[in-house]
UniProtKB/TrEMBL annotation:
Record domain Malate synthase G alpha-beta insertion: where: 158-193
Domain Malate synthase N-terminal as annotated: residue spans: 21-66
Name of the encoding gene: glcB
Binding of acetyl-CoA, residues: 119, 126-127, 253, 290, 518
Protein name per its UniProtKB record: Malate synthase G
Catalytic residues in the record: 317, 608
Keyword vocabulary terms for this entry: Cytoplasm, Glyoxylate bypass, Magnesium, Metal-binding, Oxidation, Transferase, Tricarboxylic acid cycle
């Protein structure tokens, strides 16, 4: 650690900031750190007070539910109780003036376009670059390489029958998005004549650029290409605008526990904001160097240049208010709140973009986009608003330059959504239903109400339907249409693209202007939904709907009975335990924060800290209410440890867990379940961090020992 005015800062972080971030921003290091110390002095105690309030409210809810003897039958009494303890506050939409958000200088990707939002873990430069470049994706590749179309997965050599299916699908899509004046794209043999010629907005060589619902589609015409050569119109590919926005995730998809990890994360964000991030890796026997794509150049019909962004608009998801970081130590010797540090450093780094110091532009309108997760209720959102004001003052930025994406993923936020929106109304750029964290919080908040329904049945609960509907309805009532995104949650089955194509169209149909996808391929396929549905045209009808009731939102997913068979209980436990172990073992032992983990049916599911929160809270709930015994959970851990070991047998860095009670990963996984009831809001971070730090300390000690031996 090195001393800086009012703080101790990890040497690696001080060096990143002073040697690589501050130069070019116009800030001098001493003044910068003094300003940072001032922000911590003001906001760290406030942050602690907010966390204490979370604990206090949860204790009151627990006590009330115990006193009621479980799920209260009387909705009115429950609401009155929640209002009495300050869990529910006054709804600004009930005020005659209502609220209309008013963010300024927001990019078109957020205000007036509807399309996919990709999420990418910040620690993986190869994925980060791929995500930023996922603004454009090949529809042919996305269809050919996934299960989007029927038939066996493609092998090494080109399968012409599958190729024909791909082309038929893509041309069917063009028929709907860019219809021809006569006939179908499949029958085209020459130049297309469009039903609406104004859809042709540019050309690049022979390629044609079309626009539909604000999104672009480039039809690649190349008769010399192996595919184009066999196509009657010479069409070699259909490239579509895909991930309009991407969230660079510092939160639930990464394992960041110390200064070294934080510096790596911030350095990658710096590379994105400066435009010089590179990743070199081996793929398919070749060395690949991946960089950010430049903007795309076309010629409009009047001969002028038509330039389109080559990259997705990037947001940084900071961590929430809960955790602290050893990267900065405050004057009283305590660790700094990590969310405050993230806010300061990610904004500071984004100055490189704002001041035009980078190779490319991220925000063309001069905004910094930060997603703030896991906030509980309006006071916590207001805290973020004030923190961002202080950061703007520190960095000499105009008020409301730093924008916020508000995750609606905790119950107290859903129950007070309009008040939360009001708290950041001048900087709000999205609301989003993070249904995974939200499910974890649903279980934890009502832990004492009774045994929850099975995990798979959660999606049919009345609370989740009300939650999803209210988010859109309240968003529209607060004027988000045309000003900010209304977003839907993650498609957590990255290999199930046929299912995604079938189901995720529901997101734009409900009025969402964006929805999360786990990969560039998923972004390309999901983008087609925003051609099928003109989301903005649906908004007036959605806006006219009555907002789903608060009572429905507050209805707890407690099972009406617990007479599950022994087999059903075993299946439920094993499914949850397998997900927990498969995810935790990589987090703890290898520092991997987001994984594709096989579920009990061998389907690879995206697991992150939010899905872990659900699984661990669910088992903790069933144990608390006697649906299962500790012995049954132990048996599930024994059986699934062996299964997860077998699934990872090909990984040379993997340490088995079965029969090894000393495995730190296994101990962490067990603690998440057996100490689940007492975890703050059911979060998994405190235990994950503690165990990962132990593994890192052990590895460092072993490395030191080896060095000593080699030196001796
Ligand atoms: C509840 C929440 O908070 S959800 C938000 C947090 N979740 C996420 O961020 C999920 C992001 N997605 C991912 O991390 C990954 O897709 C995983 C872990 C789910 C699967 O990863 P893998 O098993 O390695 O994926 P898979 O082998 O199918 O594909 C890898 C290829 O896809 C690309 N890819 C996969 N996901 C992404 C992504 N999110 N962004 C960019 N590229 C990606 C990789 O770059 C790689 O391509 P390359 O070889 O050309 O570099
Ligand atoms: O962050 C997203 C979620 O679903 O949780
Ligand atoms: Mg979340």
């Amino acid at each position: 650690m090195v001393d800086r005015p009012g703080l101790k800062v990890a040497a690696s972080l001080a060096s990143l900031i002073e040697d690589r971030v501050l130069p070019g921003t116009g800030f001098e290091s001493g003044a910068f750190w003094a300003g940072v110390a001032g922000i911590f002095a003001r906001f760290a105690p406030w942050n602690a007070t907010l966390l204490a309030k979370r604990t206090d409210l949860q204790a009151r809810i627990d006590a009330w539910l115990v006193q009621q003897g479980g799920h209260p039958a009387d909705h009115a009494a429950y609401q009155a109780f929640l209002r009495g303890i300050g869990y529910i506050v006054a709804d600004p939409l009930e005020h005659p003036t209502g609220i209309t958000i008013a963010p300024r200088n927001v990019d078109a990707e957020v205000t007036s376009l509807a399309g996919p939002q990709l999420v990418v873990p910040v620690l993986n430069a190869r994925f980060l670059l791929n995500a930023a470049n996922a603004r454009w994706g090949s529809l042919y590749d996305a269809l050919y390489g996934t299960d989007a179309l029927p038939g066996p997965p493609p092998g090494r050599s080109f399968d012409p029958a599958r190729g024909a299916l791909v082309i038929a699908w893509a041309k069917g899509f063009l028929d709907r998005a860019v219809p021809l004046a006569q006939g179908r794209w499949a029958d085209l043999t020459g130049k297309p004549v469009l039903a609406d010629p104004s859809q042709l907005v540019g050309r690049a060589g022979r390629n044609l650029l079309f626009r539909h619902n604000g999104l672009h589609i480039e039809v690649v015409i190349d008769p010399l290409h192996p595919i184009g050569g066999t196509d009657p119109a010479g069409i070699a590919d259909v490239i579509i605008e895909a991930a309009l926005t991407t969230i660079v995730d510092f939160e639930d998809s990464v394992a960041v526990v110390d200064a070294k990890d934080k510096v790596e994360a911030y350095a990658n964000w710096l590379g994105l904001m400066r435009g010089d991030l590179e990743a070199t890796f081996r793929k398919g026997g070749n060395t690949v160097v991946r960089r950010l794509e430049p903007d795309r150049q076309y010629v409009a019909s009047d001969g002028s240049n038509y330039v389109l962004p080559g990259r997705s608009l990037l947001f940084a998801r900071n961590v929430g208010h809960l955790m602290t970081t050893p990267a900065v130590i405050l004057r009283d010797g305590s660790q700094a709140p990590e969310g405050i540090l993230d806010g300061i450093v990610t904004s500071l780094i984004a100055l490189h973009d704002l001041k035009g110091k980078g190779k490319f532009r991220n925000s063309r309108t001069g905004s910094i986009y930060i997603v703030k997760p896991k906030m509980h209720g309006p006071e916590e959102v207001q805290f973020t608003d004030h923190l961002f004001e202080a950061i703007e003052d520190l960095l000499g930025l105009a008020r409301y330059t730093v924008k916020v994406g508000l995750m609606d993923e905790e119950r107290r936020t859903s129950a007070n959504l309009a008040a939360c929106i009001e708290a950041v109304k001048n900087r709000l750029v999205f609301i989003n239903t993070g249904f995974l964290d939200r499910t974890g919080d649903e279980i934890h908040t009502s832990m004492r109400a009774g045994a929850m329904v099975r995990k798979g049945d959660m999606k049919n609960s009345s609370w989740i339907k009300a939650y999803e509907a209210r988010n859109v309805q309240i968003g529209l009532a607060c004027g988000l249409s045309g000003r900010a995104q209304i977003g839907k949650g993650m498609w957590a089955a990255p290999d199930r693209m046929a299912d995604m194509l079938e189901q995720k169209i529901a997101h734009p149909l409900t009025g969402a202007t964006t929805a999360w996808v786990p990969s560039p391929t998923a972004a390309t396929l999901h983008a087609t939904h925003y051609h099928e549905v003109d989301v903005f045209a649906l908004h007036p009808a959605r806006r006219a709907e009555a907002v789903a009731s608060l009572d429905a939102l507050l209805t707890m997913p407690v099972s009406p009975g617990t007479n599950w068979s022994e087999q059903e209980v075993r299946d439920e436990l094993q499914n949850n335990v397998q997900g927990i172990l498969g995810y935790v073992v990589r987090w703890i032992d290898q520092g991997i924060g987001c994984s594709k983990v096989l579920d009990i049916n061998d389907i690879g599911l995206m697991e992150d800290r939010a899905t872990l929160r659900i699984s661990s809270q669910h088992i903790a709930n069933w144990l608390l209410h006697g649906v299962c015994t500790k012995a049954q959970i132990d048996a599930a851990f024994d059986k699934m440890a062996a299964k997860v070991d077998a699934q990872n047998a090909g990984d040379p860095r993997y340490s088995p867990m079965a029969g090894r009670p000393e495995s730190m990963a296994l101990q962490a996984a067990r603690a998440l379940v057996f100490k689940g009831v007492e975890q703050p809001n059911g979060y998994t971070e405190p235990l994950l961090h503690a165990w990962r730090e132990r593994v890192k300390a052990e590895e460092a000690a072993e490395a030191g020992e080896l060095k000593r031996k080699l030196g001796a």
